[in-house]
Specification:
456 residues; alpha/beta; single chain; Transcription Regulator spoIIAA; 23 strands
Length: 456
């Protein structure tokens, strides 16, 4: 009996992770997971049932909040006695609201999410509501590096966090704090670690990536001096051996310099793919959003990219239904996007977020009109994607392959972000291969699997 008890006590606890939201969250979840594994925990799939569930949340939209509640219920279905920890943006913005969700045991804010292991042993399932450890967001004032590994052939490498911009619709500064960055030296070190793990592609991530340099100041005499800007980081990363590709996840148009565009155009490793938030094609709406540019600057950035890299893929973020957006304002956005030489959109339907200026502006757009405008832009985005891809049909391009979610298939991206799909060949996983781009598959309206491929 004594021996049996010893074996049971020695059995490692299992932990399952779920990430909601952006690439930055994925990088942070992966780093948290490795810290658990280093302490002897076994990572299991969400559906297997675990002793501990850790949910890394997003709170960009109301849907993200509801998604968190749904995932808590789902975790309890698989493992009713599991300890459930919620971290991330939603946890910082609404910690008490999360603590009131039945089954949640611990809520950690932005400054504490990387210290989960300190609190795990103190979690009790007998408490009426979850324990909250979430101070003011200003306490999240140091940069903690992170990168993803193990679930993809790409790694999301966090190089920047927080944001000093005050866009009227956004809660990210409230959730993640002020802009701060890693050092160039440490980013390069992490990139080399990733390369040594056999990963071929790195996606650079951050909240406001182009603002890299905040938080890396050194004192010379009495004047603070930035250690390096984003362009300096990019140039250093280009020399890291073992990495075949870098992608820039998203960059504000006012921070996307022509110098950076020109460097990417001549680089052997930084791929011809930019994702540039627009949010609106109406200067009036851009002003009320408190964006730091107007549409003419955005248009010029697209023009410069295409003059240097005609094959470059350009993605766009756009918000529909912002307070005060008239039909004329929306159609101005529609026609502006229609004329731009861009490749696809991420369309967001505006939702009111507490403690943001936009929520108090008045002149709300009806939910039904918001949905109609979203649908119009999604259809336009599909047309843009088809228009972008079609000239490459019949050509040969390099694709980095990984296992697809579809059983028996693998998928990957060309350098300019055309996703392709092929029957699974295990020897091709995490390799770059030349393929012929044949044609759209029968579900070409679905961007994530719009092409059928053959090996050369």
């Amino acid at each position: 009996m004594y021996l049996i008890k010893q074996i049971i006590m020695a059995t490692p606890l299992t932990v399952a992770f779920l990430t909601l939201g952006c690439k930055l969250n994925f990088s942070e979840t992966s780093s948290i997971r490795r810290s658990f594994e280093d302490q002897g925990y076994n990572t299991v799939e969400f559906e297997q049932g675990a002793d501990i569930y850790i949910l890394n949340t997003c709170s960009v939209t109301d849907f993200a909040d509801k998604k968190c509640r749904y995932e808590v219920r789902r975790a309890l279905k698989y493992s009713p006695q599991a300890r459930i920890v919620v971290v991330g943006c939603y946890a910082q913005l609404k910690p008490q609201e999360i603590a009131d969700i039945p089954g949640v045991d611990l809520v950690l804010g932005a400054a504490e999410k990387f210290n989960i292991l300190k609190y795990i042993d103190g979690i009790s399932k007998s408490a009426d509501k979850g324990m909250v450890i979430a101070g003011e967001v200003k306490e999240a004032n140091s940069f903690i590096d992170a990168f993803s590994f193990g679930d993809r052939t790409r790694s999301f490498l966090k190089v920047q966090d927080g944001c000093d911009y005050k866009c009227s619709f956004c809660t990210i500064p409230q959730a993640r704090g002020a802009s701060r960055s890693d050092t160039i030296e440490n980013v390069v070190t992490n990139a080399q670690k990733i390369a040594n793990l056999g990963v071929k592609e790195i996606v650079l991530t951050g909240v406001n990536l182009g603002d890299f340099g905040n938080g890396t100041e050194v004192i010379e005499g009495t004047k603070p001096k930035k250690e390096g800007l984003f362009i300096d980081l990019v140039k250093e990363l280009d020399d890291v051996s073992g990495i075949e590709r870098y992608r820039i996840s998203s960059i504000e148009p006012n921070l996307l310099t022509n110098e950076l565009i020109d460097f990417v155009a001549d680089s052997n490793k930084f791929v011809p793919h930019f994702h540039i938030p627009l949010q609106s094609g109406s200067d009036k709406i851009l002003k009320t959003m408190r964006r730091r540019y107007q549409r003419e600057l955005y248009k010029e950035k697209v023009r410069h990219i295409k003059s240097k890299m005609p094959h470059c893929c350009i993605g766009v973020d756009v918000i529909v239904g912002f307070p005060g957006e008239t039909e004329e304002d929306f159609m101005e956005t529609y026609y502006f996007l229609n004329e731009l030489d861009v490749s696809y959109f991420h369309v967001f339907t505006y939702s009111e977020r507490a403690n943001t200026p936009a929520a108090e502006m008045g002149f709300p757009v009806s939910v039904e009109i918001r949905r109609q405008r979203n649908e119009m832009l999604r259809i336009l985005s599909q047309k843009k994607r088809i228009s972008f891809v079609t000239p490459f049909l019949g050509t040969v391009r390099e694709v980095l392959f990984e296992r697809d979610k579809m059983e028996g298939m693998m998928s990957g991206y060309t350098d300019n972000y055309i996703k392709v799909i092929l029957p699974l060949d295990p020897d091709m996983i995490n390799t770059t291969s030349h393929v012929i781009l044949n044609n759209f598959d029968k579900n070409c309206e679905h961007v994530e699997s719009c092409l059928a491929m053959e090996k050369v």
